[in-house]
Write a structure and sequence with these properties.
This protein is an alpha/beta fold and 356 residues long. Helices cover 44% and strands 18% of the residues.
Length: 356
Amino acid sequence: MQAYSENEQLLTRNIIFGMKPTIILAIESSCDDTSAAVIRDGILLSNVTASQKVHEEYGGVVPELASRAHQQNVLPVVDTALRRAGVDRHELSAIGFTRGPGLLGSLLVGTSFAKGMALSLGIPLIEVNHLQGHVLAHFVSEGKADERHPEYPFLCLLVSGGNSQIVLVRAWNDMQIIGQTIDDAAGEAFDKCAKVMNLPYPGGPLIDRLAKEGDAERFKFAKPNLPGYDYSFSGLKTSFLYFLRDNLKDNPDFIEQNKADLCASLQKTVVDILMKKLRKAAKDLGISHVAVAGGVSANSALRNAFIDYGKRYRAEVYIPPFSYTTDNAAMIAQVAYYKYGAGDFCPIEAVPFARI
């Protein structure tokens, strides 16, 4: 007997019994990307994102500028998402939004817009945890036949500019953080080390690109030795800074002459740190399904490390498409869709939160 997914079963039921489809608009505005997506009966119809270039000249995201840009972008992004999905706003069943964590000013823009639109249409409001969205991005479906989704339970390595966590996922609404950074996140370490080398913001993608031309074994940097599954990247950052300082004394052109090797060695160190803890957690818990999510999951070395891990340990690995690695509303829509089915709605009085 052929097995059908929950999404396919719901779609078939709606067709047979003529039930109204579940259509959800989702809004993501946790940092500097304004995004909106539309999902119908578990199938993604559109995912539109407007990025902000204004932060590049400042070497990082400026919260006030980010919130102002969200105010300019949210309406056209939502309008575009609805038009691409072929959905009228009056057809919506609910509106999902990122409540946190993130930049408070940015979250306020998305939250306020979602509230106003939900009130005007008389439909439910659904809050979504941004980090839960990254984990469940692996379940976003575009209706393609060859899609793969993790089996529960699985481990998810969630890595971004603000987070480095190992999450034990037992169900869409049952997640446990079993390890996390005690200081800097992996993406933050990339960006800070890039800044020391005078690379433009964001530094992570540029380090990845330069690393492909370098020797990852040439330089060695400090690796933490923490118990359990927790991470630390502040020591690596300090080690990298002191290494450059000492070499620049003898050769002022050291960075420029060795930039590719520096990037490759730094990247290898970060990936080694991340994978060591993940391997330990998977072995200790006896879990053979592992996934990676978050902005740093776009890093080519980390993606290759996951592929190698799957082959070496005969594990099932799940790597998200590049479009679902950075902040996007598709992942928010997926969580909102699950919550809608569970009747888990949000009061209009709910306020965003910057931290958990």
